[in-house]
């Protein structure tokens, strides 16, 4: 792969008039702004990062997590750009590399449904139920499997390229470079093994191919490519943040003791840096101040670790032969690798199994069951009406009310998907767009309304 193609500033679905010759921003700055000001990104403020419906305002939401990942991603991109400055095409700087990774990191969770990973599981669980299987009747095997396995990464790719802003006409019109850096799993659902993540639904396969072709990704087989090199930095930024910041949230919620988190974070620091960091600490109970003072030291060590791993594996990455995570590629004895491994293990055994968190996540299954029963039934009825040659099939009153929630994005009203015709698959995909885009609050409120738990309307 070549950096001249990997960093291409051409836009998906964009027009020459969009380049705005007098715009003071670079193409990659425009990408950052389009994502940051999008409706889908704004709604992340009411979506779960780890702890649903948390009343403590210091605990991260999906929005604050995404902002922090983006800052780390920008530093990673800039650091890599400085290391490979002699390999960059003319006119591209380390600052540009930082912006591309910044944009990809901002968007990395934009496709996550309400309640985070629990929401993904709840959607897949519903499609495995009798109601879900009935809805999928008549679909081809690949399309059925595609709908039955909800994947936030693929939903994010669809949001950026299809449904946000320019509906079915390129989405946000981002550069191919940013879209490449966003795709951590550049293959479609038909190529994913059971339980394996993927980066595109069948509905976005042609778009994924455009991104891969424009950026020059190495094709492994049909509908599957190697990663864009900067996608490894996007993943590393996410790993660095959730492995360390989740510790801070756990302390805030009394799931961990402050000293447990401090000791784990300190384990990555060398003696001279450790001495400086400890000297800046106040009492253990002032954990917010302590985390603020030591966080930079920890991030600096992990960022350097990720870049060291990238450079150690540079040829394999550029040839499309590398697999796995950057920090995971460091030597087993490397303290930076050990911190990420230990922090993830603490998350699995102590943080993500916390009782109050899991109780709320259990309740989200009922929320999704209610929403999916109503919306998927309406989608199937909608398709039957579209297919009816003389209008013999009519939507039930309930399905009309349900689809009205989608407003102009309903399959009845909105532009047809690429191909110019609504199918059962595309109708179902459209209502899943709506449900996946909901905030935790709205999903819960709407499910209560649908199930008859009426509240006074507030206008």
Alpha plus pi helix count: 21
General shape = globular
Spatial order of the strands forming the largest sheet = 1-2
Number of domains: 3
CATH class categorisation of the largest domain:
Mainly Alpha
Distance between termini? 54 Å
In the CATH hierarchy, what is the superfamily of the largest domain? Hypothetical protein af1432
Number-wise, the strands total 2
**Subunit organisation of the chains:** single chain
Mean pLDDT: 91
Radius of gyration: 23 Å
The amount of helix comes to: 55-70%
Counting helices, strands and paired strands, the structural category is mainly alpha
CATH architecture call of the largest domain: Orthogonal Bundle
Which helices and strands occur, and which strands form pairs?
Blueprint lengths: L2 H4 L20 H10 L2 H4 L19 H22 L10 H13 L9 H13 L1 H6 L5 H8 L3 H12 L12 H7 L22 H11 L3 E3 L2 E2 L3 H24 L5 H9 L4 H9 L7 H26 L1 H5 L16 H17 L3 H33 L9 H8 L19 H14 L2 H11 L9
Antiparallel strand pairs: 1-2
Helix pairs in contact: 2-5, 4-5, 4-12, 4-15, 5-10, 5-12, 6-18, 10-11, 12-15, 12-17, 13-15, 18-19, 18-20, 18-21
Kindly describe this structure.
The longest helix is centred in the last third of the chain and has 33 residues, at 355-387. The N and C termini lie far apart (54 Å). The chain has three domains: 3-113 and 150-228, Hypothetical protein af1432; 114-149 and 355-459, eoxyguanosinetriphosphate triphosphohydrolase fold (Orthogonal Bundle); 230-351, putative deoxyguanosinetriphosphate triphosphohydrolase like domain (putative deoxyguanosinetriphosphate triphosphohydrolase fold). The mean pLDDT is 91. The protein is 58% helix and 1% strand. The protein has 21 helices and two strands. By secondary structure, the chain is mainly alpha-helical.
